[in-house]
Design brief:
heterodimer; A: mainly beta; 4-stranded antiparallel sheet; 10 strands; globular; B: mainly beta; 6-stranded mixed sheet; 12 strands
Chain lengths: 115, 116
């Protein structure tokens, strides 16, 4: 597609429920990233996929968080047993490759509210 | 480890005046440097990047940034601010030959408020 698409745009869930967030990267972009942005704060790296390499999961805050990506297409970020501190905007970005100086193209994000 | 510092949470400037949003970075090798802008309720948009070559980089909407290796800085500038420039600005860095460390590290953001 023309840009990075994320769904849903907004999600309200009850504490303890599982949620799944989806990201459709730009076609041909081999690198895909998930970031979290809490209210009034900067971007916190979560996970990075590059082609068929093992993902860099170093930013996942707990084992309740996981992400998958099939090939160079769609990625899903799953949060199990959601907590109120998980409330944030979850941003997905993709880039042409993981290297060189390519910047990212970001999606509009999924605003997650845990009540 | 890579890191980025944006020392000002907010910058206030009058319309028509020059603006500067500060950014300093730390990497063990040579950096790639980026500026992104986030308007309210919208995703981040790419403004400009420094990869190599001329230290003065020009980007979208009349913004520019100067790479200063000795001061490890990459300040964002614009000669004449517009009210429509009011937004949240993020500086980001990654190491040029980071191997497995290909992710961008973002600063905490600086809110630019341009008064009419």
């Amino acid at each position: 597609g023309a840009g990075v698409s994320q769904s849903p745009s907004n999600k309200v869930t009850e504490k303890g429920k599982d949620v799944e967030l989806r990201c459709d990267p730009i076609s041909g972009h081999t690198a895909l990233y998930w970031y979290r942005q809490r209210l009034g704060q900067g971007l916190e790296f979560l996970i990075y996929f590059q082609g068929n390499s093992a993902p860099d999961k170093s930013g996942l805050p707990s084992d309740r968080f996981s992400a998958e990506r099939t090939g160079e297409s769609v990625s899903t970020l799953t949060i199990q047993r959601t907590q109120q501190e998980d409330s944030a905007v979850y941003l997905c970005a993709s880039s042409l490759t993981g290297g060189e100086g390519y910047g990212y193209t970001f999606g509009s994000g999924t605003r997650l509210t845990v009540v | 480890a890579q890191s980025v510092a944006q020392p000002e949470d907010q910058v206030n400037v009058a319309e028509g005046n020059p603006l500067t949003v500060k950014c300093t970075y730390s990497v063990s090798g040579n950096p790639y440097l980026f500026w992104y802008v986030q308007y309210p309720n919208r995703g981040l948009q790419f403004l400009l990047k420094y990869i190599t070559g001329d230290n003065l980089v020009k980007g979208s909407y009349g913004f520019e940034a100067e790479f200063n290796k000795s001061q490890t800085s990459f300040h964002l500038k614009k000669p004449s601010a517009l009210v429509s420039d009011s937004a949240l600005y993020f500086c980001a860095v990654r190491e040029k030959y980071g191997g497995a460390t290909n992710k961008l590290i973002f600063g905490t953001g600086t809110l630019l408020a341009v008064q009419p």
